[in-house]
Amino acid sequence: MVQKVEPLTKFLLPIDGKGTYKAACGLAGSLAAVCKDRVKEITLLHVMAGRYLSTHMANIDIRVDTVLESDLFKRLKEDFINKQIQPVLDEAAEIIKKIYPEGHIDSKVKDGKPSRVIIDFVKENEYSTIVMQRRCMDPVKGSFIGSVTSGILYGNGSCSVYIPGTDYPPDGSKVDFRSLLVPVDGSPGSLAAVEEAAILMNFVPEARILLLNVVDVVDIAKAAEKNLWPSPVQEAEGILEKAVKILTSSGIERDRMDKKVMPGDPAEVIVSEAESSSADIVFVGRTVRSPFTDIIVGSVARAVLGRCAKKTLAVITPEAQ
């Protein structure tokens, strides 16, 4: 069973040394500044993945099975961390502090396969939120999701993942969260996305939310042919009302909500609506495939993640089943 931590309380930022972290730091700082005392912890994590071995030990004649325990290795590793990694972590921390100066920011350095280490670290330390960038932030190639991001999205089952898009200021500047988009299909993941969006809206009184349901055109045609009741459109409206009730029960006024039912392919419509809208964050719910496996990203969410590169995305984990 996957136990979800209270949303937006403990942030983990995976930081690499290639400069692809400034927007993630800005996003984390902006979220923390908005949520204020709700945020208990912000941690920066760098996973070395053995890179320092190939960089610093290529010409050292020493048996492989003794490398990890040797004093020489430990000195080289410490030197590498101090000169190559810590300055990056310090820069990342400064970006966050400019936006959220009152926050305490911790940093950790681990060895191993990045995605696996990050997932284990999240579970062991009960983080609620991962904030990380895609490997490629180019506006043209930005739809590509790197192997580490993909591994975390598919393997992590205990927290939400926030990914800044190419529209996000690349220098990590502060942003506002005044327009939220949540596709809602009635699944636990999509309703959990509504709940997390409500938390953010409670800290931003001027924020508005668009609840979107996409009805497959094939289902509409079949229902019309067989004169089914309720129709797919009526069912969609009922699903959106469930989302409205979640928001109102969280203290969000109805006049801050918009609802939209649209026909078409769900992934295509969601991507089109996200890219054409003024949404600051698009919340996408994960899908629970089995009670015996981790929570993984469903087909529609996968398509949105792969094709919606401009907008900041929040991939939300539903409550443990």
List keywords for this structure.
321 residues; Rossmann fold; ten-stranded mixed β-sheet; 2 domains; elongated; alpha/beta; 11 helices
Please work out how many helical segments DSSP would assign: 11
User: What shape does the CA trace take?
Assistant: elongated
Distance from first to last alpha carbon: 7 Å
Main pleated-sheet profile: 10 strands, mixed
CATH level-four homologous superfamily name of the largest domain: HUPs
CATH hierarchy class name of the largest domain: Alpha Beta
CATH architecture assignment name of the largest domain: 3-Layer(aba) Sandwich
Major sheet strand order: 3-2-1-4-5-10-9-6-7-8
Report mean pLDDT, rounded to a whole number: 85
Number of domain units: 2
CATH fold descriptor of the largest domain: Rossmann fold
- Rg, nearest Å: 21 Å
* Structural class assignment: alpha/beta
> How many extended strands?
10
Query: Which segments are poorly predicted (pLDDT under 50) over 5 or more consecutive residues?
Result: 137-144, 290-295
Q: Work out the strand percent.
A: 15-25%
Summarize it:
This protein is of the alpha/beta class. 43% of the residues lie in helices and 17% in strands. It has 11 helices and 10 strands.
Q: How do the strands and helices of this protein lay out in sequence?
A:
Layout: E1 10-14, H1 22-35, E2 41-47, H2 51-56, H3 64-67, H4 71-99, E3 105-110, H5 114-125, E4 129-131, H6 147-155, E5 160-163, E6 179-183, H7 188-203, E7 208-215, H8 217-226, H9 232-249, E8 257-263, H10 266-276, E9 281-285, H11 299-307, E10 312-316
Parallel strand pairs: 1-2, 1-4, 2-3, 4-5, 6-7, 6-9, 7-8, 9-10
Antiparallel strand pairs: 5-10
